[in-house]
Every structure is written in C-alpha cells, then in structure tokens.
Amino acid sequence: MQRSNVTRNDGSWVGLSLDVRDRRQPGLCVLAVRPRLLVSQRARPVLLAVVDEHLQGVDFWRTDEYRSFVPPLRADVARALAGSPERWAHRFARYLVDSPGSPLHEGRWLLSCESPLRRWRHADVSHAEYWSSMLVEGHPDGYIDWFVHSGSLEVLPLRPMPDADDSRVKAYRKQARDGTLPPVLLWWVSGLDCHLILDGHARLAAAIAESLEPPLLQVHRTVPGDDLDARIDESVGFYEDELARFAALRGVHGPTVPDGAATAGPQLVRRLHDLHTAEQLTWAWPLPGGENQWRRTEREVTADRWRPLM
User: Fold this and answer.
1) pTM metric for this prediction
2) Which residues on adjacent β-strands are paired with residue 216?
3) pLDDT at 284
4) DSSP-assigned states of every residue in 186-208
C-alpha cells in the first residue's frame, strides 16, 4: 500500500491518498442483490437494507455484530496528536490497511478531514442540534431518508449511540472540551447514500453532548490508478481545446477577446483536484446465493420481526 498526501495549490493538507493493492475483497463489504443490500463483516451480517422502489430512501435492519477494527485510543496519544488531522490520518490509515475487518480493497482511496457534512450547518443552529439531526435513528430497524436528507447528509451508526451519561462518553466529553478528542471515522457508502460510523460512536456522542463540532476523518474511493492518467489527459485536453477556442475568437474579433487562460486555468486546477479527491461509487459484490440467501439471512437475524416498506 502506498500513501501520499493530497494538498491544495496553497499547500494546505486535504487528505491522505491510499493506493491499496492485492486485496480483492475486504472484510467489511457491501453485498448486493437488487434492490437488497447486505453489509457484512468477515461473514457476519452487520446491516440488511432494502432500497425503496421509488428511490426515496432505504429501510434497514442493524444487527449488533459490527466490531470496530480500531483499537482503543489512549488519552496520551490523543493529547500528542491533538489538532493534527494529518497525523491522525496516518494512524487510522494503518488500522484501515492492517485490519481484516476494514472496508479497504484494491484501488485508490482518500482519507480526509473534509466532509460535506461540515458545510451545511447554518450559523444559527448549534452543533448539538445539527449533528443530532444528521444521525439516522432507529434500532434495530429504521429508515435512511433520501427525500429529506439528499446528498449524503446523514450518518448511520453501526451500533446504538451511547447516552450522554455513558462512562466512555463522559471521558470523551472532557477531551472534547480540551480540544484533544480523536476523530470519528466515517465511511461513505454510495448504495446507502450516507456515512457509516466505523469508529467513534462514543466520541461523536461526546461532541454532541458538548455541542462542539466533532473532528472527522472520512474514507471513500477515488479515481482508480489505472484510470487516473487517462482522466488527467482528458482534463489537459479540455484545457488546450479551450485555449484554442479563445485563440480562434481572438483571430476573428481581435485582442479585446481574452486569451482564455483566466477561465480555463482554474477549471483545469479544479478538475485535477477532483481526480484525487472526488467520491467514486462504492463497490458492491454479488451476494452468493442471491435473493434466497438474503432472505435466509433476514429470517435468521430478524426472526421475522422486520417488515420493510417495499
């Protein structure tokens, strides 16, 4: 696995690019038989889901089988890494790559402190109110609402969120106030159009209890390496075509027409940046046994207590 820092033109850190190889199918993966999904961790069913036929949301049933692959984060480590999402990213990258229970498979990934979740809180809405509204409610069953929360603006815990008076949450609340709270690790899953909490349920609960913005690290697929060069060539070709178009206009209308660099240049920069950061669809594998196996799993884990809306 190769790691490399992704930065903006001004040198500010955006995230950590992970080029994963020789990992065909991860321990934590999405298995699919339309319109049904099964999130499985090392053969344990973690989440059963059915996409609404009108594509307005997803019914789900969450089991208690998910196990975080991140070891307990010591307070002294949290103090040492406080305020450095880059250093936290390198630490979490090691857990993601080394653990057989993580979602990483071969391809390119981005582990970033940037998330669309951060951009939509209005100034007059408290952090507690905003982040509470982002959490998908319901256990063991619930509904991911694509109609109300469009654009991946929900967070689905993979186990019930602890209460504010939980002992772990109390310890993390102090770290939240001190500015030493470790990040919450999220995985964006396109088939659910939401973020799953891989690690940090208690840390997120602590941030909400203190009405502070939680530190985040989000992992998602990006453009694969074997496609990256071709995409870069396309972007450069677009830039050159734009300059040629402006040159032709200048030839007809004279030097009052700009040369196009002021327009095409920033467009090229954005396109190249997106190649390293933009979310790519989450891979899903065909569920062995198809719909019959999905229904057998449903009966086993729900004891026929679940009635999806479809």
Assistant:
1) 0.88
2) 184
3) 96
4) EEEETTTTEEEEEE-HHHHHHHH
